[in-house]
Design a protein that fits this description.
86 residues, mainly alpha, 4 helices, ACP-like_sf
Length: 86
């Protein structure tokens, strides 16, 4: 499957927002996801699973454990897509 990397910011933001019960427009790319009210480890795991499913990729644990901002998540997903396509 060839994923369209240009849709990563929008799609990842939509997935993250849905899991956190927010609107996509309420999350800036620099948003510290740990500081969003209601964020917990279970929601993070669900976010990761939905992102992996959406792009048919597998994110490595070491890639996701240090992520704090929405922008970091978007960057890691873009790298994983490029790695899988390369």
């Amino acid at each position: 499957m060839t994923a369209d990397v240009s849709t990563v910011p929008e799609t990842v933001t939509e997935i993250v927002a849905a899991e956190l019960g927010r609107t996509p427009g309420s999350l800036a790319r620099g948003t510290d996801l740990r500081a969003v009210e209601g964020a917990d480890s279970i929601k993070v795991l669900r976010m990761v699973a939905k992102i992996e499913q959406a792009y048919d990729i597998e994110l490595e644990d070491e890639e996701i454990f240090g992520l704090t901002t929405l922008d970091e998540v978007i960057t890691v997903v873009g790298r994983a897509i490029a790695r899988d396509q390369g």
